[in-house]
Amino acid sequence: VVSSESGYHEAVFKSVRRADRECSIFLRDGTCGQDECSVRCRGLVTRFWNDSVGVPAVTIDRFYKPAHDDYEYYDLTEQCVDKVVAAVPCTDVCRRADSTVQCYNDQYGKLDEKKPKFVPFTKLQHRRILRECAAMLGISRERLYLFRRNGVEYYHDAKCLLRCFMLREGLYTDEDGPHFKRMSLQCEGNYNDGAYRSKAKSCISNLQDQYLDRCSLAYRIADECVNGEIAVKNIFVGAVVQLSPPDLTNLLSGLPSLLPGLPTLLPPITLPTLPPFTLFPTQPTTPRPAITLFPPLFPTQPTTTTASPTLIPPLPTLFPPLPTLFPPIIVAPTTTTPAPTTTRAFTLLPTLFPQLGR
């Protein structure tokens, strides 16, 4: 049985029988000459199988019911899967899928083929649902770029977009809050942990008592209450990153390196240069007038050399000027005729006594 009820929006539920019926139609003409691949196809349709991993995901346990008195089913299943991985090469995807799933049939529990189970969404489906929600809420791709660059928590319309995303995927309702089993299947978490669910329910109850608006309540539940291994917020942010436009400046600047032979179609982008920001402005270079707090005690000395006033008048000459000890020497001009020689008396000291007669 496959169902997609109105209350679950885009959520899809399929049983093992329904998946096998679809695969029988797909594989009617064989699989390009390969062996039986119906079990691998079942895993691809219900999304518990990935060829690159080569073993079933933990979400396969939603189709099995372990016995109440069996406490070794998990370890026995793991041991069986390890033996298959060691024996069957990863390139033989059909036989690897058939053998590993048989380990679950033999060791894990009873297979429930009739009851429909939630089918996790793919990354492509996440982007499609997010694009539809953005269109319904009138959110542009440029707005998504702001969500990606600055953070979802700073925009109320981003919180409303997250609420729409969880509603459309059937992971959340305004009345009951998050659906733990579906969130666990979507994020490959462990919803059997009773302690985790009890803690999350207490967190949700506290937020519901705060009378928040629906968008804020949905965001805070996803951010605070189910932010562990059930990280639906991380899936939402990843889809926002995929749908938001890239940074055009970095994209255009990297084109020459990506395509060296590409001619230049656009002129180089020159970003404006902002003036440097200085937390403390520099002091002005013009000198400021000196501030005198107290008057000078002594007058300032003049900067130019001036004659200081004479306090003591000049003293009279006590002694008359002494005669010249050496008279000036007169150099006669050079002539052919020698100059006459005159004899002058040399007086060292003035005559204190008159000459006596001879």
Structural features, described:
Strand 1 and strand 2 (12-14) form a beta hairpin. The radius of gyration is 53 Å and the shape is elongated. The chain is mainly alpha-helical and 358 residues long. It has a 3-stranded antiparallel β-sheet with strand order 1-2-5. A two-stranded antiparallel sheet has the order 3-4. The chain has a two-stranded antiparallel ribbon with strand order 6-7. It has helices at residues 16-26, 38-46, 73-87, 93-108, 123-137, 141-150, 156-168, 180-187, 194-208, 214-225, 232-243, 248-258, and strands at 2-3, 12-14, 64-65, 110-111, 117-119, 172-173, 177-178. Residues 1-6 have low confidence and may be disordered. Among the domains are: 2-119, Recoverin, domain 1, CATH 1.10.238; 123-243, Recoverin, domain 1. Helix 5 (123-137) crosses helix 7 and helix 5 packs across helix 11 (232-243).
Kindly list the characteristics that best describe this protein.
single chain; 358 residues; mainly alpha; Recoverin, domain 1; 3-stranded antiparallel sheet; two-stranded antiparallel ribbon; 12 helices; 7 strands; elongated; disordered N terminus; signal; disulfide bond; secreted
**Number of E-type strands:** 7
Give the strand order of the largest sheet, numbering strands 1, 2, ... along the chain: 1-2-5
Number of helices: 12
pLDDT < 50 stretches: 1-6
What's the mean pLDDT score?
80
Q: Helix amount, in percent?
A: 40-55%
- State the distance separating the first and last CA atoms: 177 Å
CATH class of the domain at 123-243: Mainly Alpha
Radius of gyration: 53 Å
Rough outline: elongated
Q: What structural class do the secondary elements suggest?
A: mainly alpha
Strand percentage lies at: under 5%
Order of helices and strands: EEHHEHHEEHHHEEHHHHH
- Let me know the CATH homologous superfamily of the domain at 123-243: Pheromone/general odorant binding protein domain
The CATH architecture classification of the domain at 123-243 is Orthogonal Bundle
Instruction: Give the oligomer, counting copies of the same chain as homo and different chains as hetero.
Output: single chain
